[in-house]
């Protein structure tokens, strides 16, 4: 995994999409989530400590929520295609510029995306085939 700045991430992302389009074999996965700079282990220990405190004092829960609302968290963007993984962190101050460039890239390469096949659509098609066969045999 390589952590890149925002511009380098966008250029690498376009390169990944172009390579995927040429090879047409691997899928590109994009992930967006809030980043808190804490490891899973730290979060677990904090949660256990907080749960013990909450049993003692119910007002602490409201204080924790207020503290979390005041913080600004960066956005974590991850793109994976096979073995290549790239990551970037987008701050709230840079988000508008980044989103416009990111959305333009996604619009260009949206045609390569495959629609998700739904089970209901398959079932409807099979039913139509059966009905068509029945009508053909009765006519």
UniProtKB/TrEMBL annotation:
Signal peptide boundaries: none
This protein is called Signal recognition particle subunit SRP14
Which parts of this chain are annotated as the region Disordered? 36-67
Q: Of which family is this protein a member?
A: Belongs to the SRP14 family.
Per its UniProt record, what InterPro entries does this chain match? Answer: Signal_recog_particle_SRP14, Signal_recog_particle_SRP9/14
Database matches in Gene3D superfamilies: Signal recognition particle alu RNA binding heterodimer, srp9/1
Q: Which GO terms describe its molecular function?
A: 7S RNA binding; endoplasmic reticulum signal peptide binding
Q: What is its main location?
A: cytoplasm
Residue ranges annotated as compositionally biased, kind Basic and acidic residues, are 43-64
For this UniProt record, the keywords arranged alphabetically read as follows:
Coiled coil, Cytoplasm, Ribonucleoprotein, RNA-binding, Signal recognition particle
Kindly list the GO CC terms recorded for this protein.
signal recognition particle, endoplasmic reticulum targeting
What is known about what this protein does? Component of the signal recognition particle (SRP) complex, a ribonucleoprotein complex that mediates the cotranslational targeting of secretory and membrane proteins to the endoplasmic reticulum (ER).
Which ranges of the sequence are coiled-coil? 106-133
Location relative to the cell: Cytoplasm
Q: How does it assemble?
A: Component of a fungal signal recognition particle (SRP) complex that consists of a 7SL RNA molecule (scR1) and at least six protein subunits: SRP72, SRP68, SRP54, SEC65, SRP21 and SRP14.
Domain of life (superkingdom): Eukaryota
Please name the source species. Diversispora epigaea
